[in-house]
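Q: Predict the assembly, please.
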Amino acid sequence: MPENATPLLDIAGLTKRYPTGDLALTDVSLRVPPGQVMALIGPSGAGKSTLIRCVNRLVEPSSGTVVLAGEALTTLSRGALRRARRRMGMIFQEYALVERLTVMENVLSGRLGYTGFWASWFRRFPRRDVEEAFRLLDRVGLAHMADKRADALSGGQRQRVGIVRALMQDPALLLVDEPTASLDPKTSRQIMRLIVELCEERGLAAIINIHDVALAQEFARRIVGLRAGRIVFDGGPDTLDAAALTSIYGEEDWSRTIRRLETEENVAETVA
Amino acid sequence: MSATNAGTAGFDAAAAARAWRPPPLIESPLLRYAVYLGALLYVVLGVVTVEVNWTRAAEGMGRAAGFLSGFFPPDFVSKGDDIFEGLMESLTMTVVSTALGIALSIPVALGASRNLAPLPIYLFCRAIIAVSRTFQEIIIAIVFVAMVGFGPLAGMLTLTFATVGFMAKLLAEDIEDIEAAQAEAVRATGAGWFSWIAWSVLPQVKPRLIGLSAYRLDINFRESAVLGLVGAGGIGDTLNTAFDRYEFDTAAAVLLIIIAIVLVCEYTSGWIRRKVQ
Amino acid sequence: MPILERAGGTPEWKRRTTAQDLMVWTGWLAGVALAVACFQFISDRTIWAFVWDAPQQGADLVSRMFPPRWSYADQLWKPLWDTINIATLGTLIAILFGVPLAFLAAHNTTPSVLFVRPVVLFIIVASRSINALIWALILVIILGPGVLAGILAIALRSIGFIAKLLYEAIEEIDPSQVEALRASGASNPQVLAWGMVPQVMPAFAGISVFRWDINIREATVLGLVGAGGIGMQLEASINTLAWPQVTMIFILILGMVAVSEWLSARVRHAII
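A: Predicted assembly structure:
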C-alpha cells in the first residue's frame, strides 16, 4: 500500500454527534491514497454510513476536517460544496434511482452538477455527455435498456445503473454505501467485481461500506473496521483474523467463518 | 459470467448518442400532437366563450373594498339568536344524517358487493349509489324541499341520502377486496350468513368503516353549511339571509364560525382515523 | 385493570369483561341518545303535516316531471358548455396556484418552517373550509353574476384541496432518491425537478383529475347563486315550476357526470 503518497482523502479527528445526543463517530482519522479501494466493515450502527456521508456532507460533521485532493470540504460554502460533490460519486444500498425516470435520465442525472437548470429541465445535455453515458452503459451491459424506466429493472441492473450514474460525475472518489445488501450472493459478487474493475480502469479510490466480510476480503485491498464510532482495525485483507473480527464485531466463534471464507474463495476461483 | 464483459464489441456510443432523444410522455407522435393541439384548442375556446361583463366586474372591484370592509369587525351579537339557531340546525342535521346514513349504508354496501350479493340485489344497490353520487347535494336538497317543505328535515334527508351513496360505494369496494381465505375459513365452519358476515367480513372492513364515518361527519357538516341556500335549513340559511340583507358583518361572523367548526371536525376526524389505523 | 384501559380500542367481537361490556353499551346508548335528541330538535322545526303529505307530493312531483321537455335541450347546450368550462378552467387555475403552495407547505421543500409554512397552511385551510357555493355567493356580489364568478369560486375552493393532498404526497416521497441527486452536486432546483417532481407526478395527476371530477358536479349548482352554468337554468325552471324542464336538466347532468367519470377513470389509468 502506498501509504506514503499524498492522500486523496484525508479525514482527521472527525466526530459526529446527532441532535438526539447519539455519538455516531468519535475522533476518526483516515487517509485514503489515490486509486485505493478500501472496505469499511463493522456492525450495524457502528457509524459506517455516517462516516461516508460526512465526507460529502450529506451529514454535517460536528467537528474534525475532511480534505479531498487538497480542498478542505468541511468549511465549504453551499455553492462550493456542490462543486466539490461532483468529484465524489455515491452508490447506494437501495440503488436510490429516481424510479419514474428512464435509465438514461438516471445516468444523465450524474451530470446535473455540470449542467444548468433549464438545460437539464429540457434534457439538453452536451453530446459528449450522452456519448459517455452510452459508452458506460455499454460497458456494464445495459446500453439496450437506455429508455426503460428504472423501476422496470432487476436489482443487479439497477445497481449497475447506480454505478454508471456515479461514474458520469467523473469522480476521483467513490463513496459506496452497502452496494450488495439488497442483492443475491451471485449478483453481489458481480457488482463488487464491477466496482473494483472500474476503479482500477479509471484509477479511482473508493470507500465501500459492506456487511459481508467475505466480499470485503475478496475485493478490497485494505480493510478498515469500525466499532461504535471508532476505528479498531486497519490493514490488508489477509491480516483480518479471528482476533481482528472479535475486536470489530465482538466475541463470537469466528473460526468457522474464516474457514468458510477460504472455501468460498476457492469456489470463486474455480467459477471465475 | 462476469457482467462486466457483457458489453457488445461493436457498440457505437457516438451513433447511439446522436440518435437518442429524451423519451416523450406519449409514445405515438400523432396522438401526442393531437392531445397537445386538442388541449390548446379547448383552453382557447373555453376562455374565449366565457362571457364576462368587464364593466360590471370593474365596478365590482371598486366596490369590493367597501364590501370587504363591511366584513370587519365580524358581528356575532346583533343576530346572535339567528346564528345560534342556524348552528344548532346544522349540527343536529349533521349528527342525525351521519348516524342514519351509516346505518343505512351498511346493508346497501353489502348488497353492492359482487362477492356477497346476488345480481338483482347488486344492481339495485349500485343504482342507489349511482343516483346519490351523481347529483350534487344541493340538487337533492331541492327535491327534498319540494317534497317535505322548508326546514332542517329536508337537509337531514339530503345528507342521509348522500352519506349512503358515499359510504356504500367505498365500503363495497373494501368488501370486494377482503381476503377470500379468511371468509372461506369462517364459512367452512358451517356458520350461517349473518354470523359469516359478522365474523369474517365485518372485522376486515371495520377500521375503514370507522375511518370513513369520521371523514363523512366532517363532510356532512361542511355541506350542512350550504344547504340553507335552497331552504333546507342550517347555518347556510342564516348566511344567505345575512347576504340578502347586506349584513356583511354578520356574514363574516358566520363564515368564521364555519371555518372554526370545520377545523375542529377535521382535526377530530383525522385523530380518529389515525387512532383506528 | 389494564384490559379495561384498552376498552375503547378493543375490537368489538372479542369477549369483554363485564365492565368493558358496560362501557361499550353505555357508549352506544349515549350515541343513540344524542342522535335521538338531535332528531327531536329537527322534528320540532318540521311541519309534519307536510311530511305525511310527502309521498303524495313526491308522486305528484314525479307525474309533473314526466315526460321531460326534450325540446328544452336546445337551450341547454350553451349552459352545459359553460358548466364544463367553469369546472375545467377553475381546476386549471387551482392547479396553477395550488402546486406552488403545496411545495411551500411540505415539510421537506418549504423554504421556511417557521414563517412560510404556517402562512401557507392557513391559506390552504381557509380555501378548503368554505364551500364553492359560498365562494360563489361572495364573488357574485363583487363581480356580478356570470361564468367568471363561477370559475373563480371553483378555483378558490380547489386550491386548498389540491395543495393539501399534494403536499401530503410530497412529504411521503422516498428521501433516498433525493439524497442521491444531492450527493451528485445537483442544485436545489435540479433536485426538485429531477428527484421530487417525478415522484409526485402520479399523485399530482390523480389529485387533479379527482378534483376536476368533483368540480363538474359542483359547477352544476353554482348557477343557483348566479355564478353561471346550467344551475342558472335549473334555478329559473324551479322558480317557474317548469318541472319537465327540470327533468331535462337532470338528464343532461346525469349524462355529463357519467362522461366525466369515465374520462377521469381513463386518464387516471393512463397516467399511473
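Residues 24-69 of chain B form one domain. The CA atoms of residues 76 and 139 of chain B lie 30 Å apart.
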